[in-house]
Amino acid sequence: MSWLIRLLAVMRKEFRQLRRDRITFAMIVGIPIGQILLFGYAINFDVRNIEAAVANQANTHLSRDFIDRLQQSQVVRISNYVATPEQLEEQLRRGRISIGIHIPVDFDRRLQDPARAAAHLLVDGADPTILGIVNRLSSMPMTSDSAAQTRAIEIRPYYNPEGRTAVNVVPGLIGIILTLTMMLFTAVAIVREREQGNLELLINTPVSTAELMTGKLIPYILIGLLQLGLIVGIGKLLFDVPVRGSLVDLYLAAAAFIAANLALGLFVSTVAKTQFQAMQVTFFILLPTILLSGFVFPFDGMPRVAQWLGELLPNTHFIRLTRGIMLRDATLMELYPEVLALLLFAVIAMTAAMLRFSRRLD
C-alpha cells in the first residue's frame, strides 16, 4: 500500500501545480472548447452566399426573374449592380466579389437560341472550391418557361482556369508559415530573457521599452522577408504558382503582416511565464488562423459570426493581399483596406505589449 500512497502524493502535487499554472489550465479547458466550436459551428462545407455583382444589360422581366432564381439558390449573394462586364472584371480583380453575373442585351433572344449561352458567370477561379460550386449553377433552370430551361449558362473562370489546388494553396500557405514562425520567435523572446536572467541586465541599461521592443522586431522582419522569398521561389519552381503582380507590393504587404505577427508574439511573451506557455498560446492562436482566415474553407461560406472573428485575424487580410497580388495582378493601392487592417493590428498589439511589459517591470 505504500506505493499507492506515494503515487497519490505525486498525483496531488501535479494537480496543485496545474491549478497554480493558470495559463496551462486555461489551455486545457480552452483548446477542446475552441476546437469543438470551430469545427462544429464555424466550419461549414455547404458554401453559400458567395459575394456577387450583376451587370444586367437586358433589364427585362425574364432577366430579372433569372437574377431572382440565382439569389433563391442561396449560392450567391448579390451585393451590387454595375453597368458593364468590364466593371465586373475590375471588381473580381480587386477581390470585391467572387462571381460576376453578366446578362447580355439580347438575353431574351438568346433564351430561344440553343446555340448561344444566355448569360455568363465570371468566376474568381483561384479557389477551385468556388469554381466547383458555381459549375453546379450551369444546370439551374433559368426561367419558368420550360422551353428555355435548358439554355446554357457560360462559366468563365479567371486567374486559375485549370483549377489547380497549388495556385490557391501556396499564397495562403505563406501566411500560415509566417504566422507560425514569426509568432514563435517573439513569443519566447521576453520569456527567454527572463529565464536566462538577462532581463534584469536590460532593465539596468539606458534602453527604453520602445527601443527594446523595436530592436527585437526588426531582425525578425528581415528573417520573415527572407522566408517569403524562399516560399515564393519554391512555389514558382516546383508548382508553377505565378506572381502576376508587383514583387515590391508583395514584400511591402508581407512586411506589414510580419510586423503584426511579431507584435502579437511580443504581447504573448508578456503574458506567458515560461517558454512552454508561450508556445502553448501560440499554437492556440494558430488554430483559428488556419480555419477562419479563408485558407482552408472559402471565407464567404462561413457563418457570419465566424467571418467577424476571421476579420480580427491578420492572416485573413494577408491571404487576400497575397492572392490579389500574386494571382490577380492587383496593386497595393487597390487592396489598401487590407493593408490598413494589418497596420492597425500591429499598432494595437505593439502598444498592448509595451504597456504590459512596463507594468511587469514595475
Automatic annotation (TrEMBL):
Cell compartment(s), UniProt: Cell membrane
Keyword terms: Cell membrane, Membrane, Transmembrane, Transmembrane helix, Transport
Database matches in Pfam families: ABC2_membrane_3
Residue ranges occupied by any ABC transmembrane type-2 domain in the UniProt entry: 119-360
Gene Ontology CC terms, in alphabetical order: plasma membrane
Listed transmembrane segments: 21-43, 169-191, 217-238, 250-269, 281-299, 339-357
Signal peptide extent: none
Its membrane topology: Multi-pass membrane protein
GO molecular function: ABC-type transporter activity
Family that this chain belongs to: Belongs to the ABC-2 integral membrane protein family.
Name assigned to this protein: ABC transporter
Organism: Woeseia oceani
